[in-house]
TrEMBL record:
It comes from Carpinus fangiana. It comes from the Eukaryota. Signal peptide: none annotated. The keyword Magnesium does not apply. SUPFAM superfamilies: DNA-binding pseudobarrel domain. GO terms for molecular function: DNA binding. Its main location: nucleus. The keyword Chloroplast does not apply. This is TF-B3 domain-containing protein. GO terms for cellular component: nucleus. Keywords: DNA-binding, Nucleus, Transcription, Transcription regulation. InterPro entries: At2g31720-like, DNA-bd_pseudobarrel_sf. It is found in: Nucleus.
């Protein structure tokens, strides 16, 4: 009697979402906007397909799974500041980060750390649903989240890809 070899599970932190190389270019309009803000250190953080959970109004958050991130855009100090807890001692406080929306409007969004079991993700929270609605984002849309720095502070740019 022969035994089947055990299937090895991939470590979820090692699984990267495949991104076709031709879509790794930041659109010119975003490049100009970032340069106008004196932005530097521009990097693709994640490309993902928006899920039903990302678009659920009651959730009001866009998940950024660390295992799918192509670039960890936060400094060590910023990561430590995301570890600070709310008064309830349960939830992480987060930080307000400037955002360039898909329609090139400038706004701000809260970036938070989210612990799910033994793994951690980042989340873009309030006012995610308002931003998604204003830019016509729906479940199934592909988006890219880019990071850049202005005066050493993290900024984000959200781009809707043509589906």
């Amino acid at each position: 009697m022969s035994r089947k070899p055990k299937r090895q599970r991939k470590n979820p932190t090692e699984i990267k979402q495949a991104v076709p190389d031709q879509q790794l270019c930041l659109p010119t309009s975003f490049k100009h906007k970032i340069m106008g803000l004196q932005g530097s250190d521009i990097n693709l953080v994640i490309q993902k397909v928006l899920t039903d959970t990302d678009m659920k109004g009651s959730q009001d958050r866009l998940s950024i799974p660390r295992g799918q991130m192509r670039y960890d855009f936060l400094s060590r100090e910023e990561q430590v500041s995301l570890e600070k807890k709310e008064a309830d001692g349960k939830h992480f406080k987060g930080m307000k980060v400037p955002l360039i929306e898909p329609g090139l409007q400038e706004s701000s969004i809260f970036l938070k750390k989210w612990k799910l079991g033994s793994s951690c993700s980042y989340m873009l929270s309030y006012p995610w649903i308002n931003i998604a609605g204003r830019n016509g984002l729906k479940s199934g849309n592909s988006v890219q989240l880019w990071s850049f720095r202005v005066n050493q502070r993290p900024h984000l740019a959200l781009i809707k890809l043509q589906n």
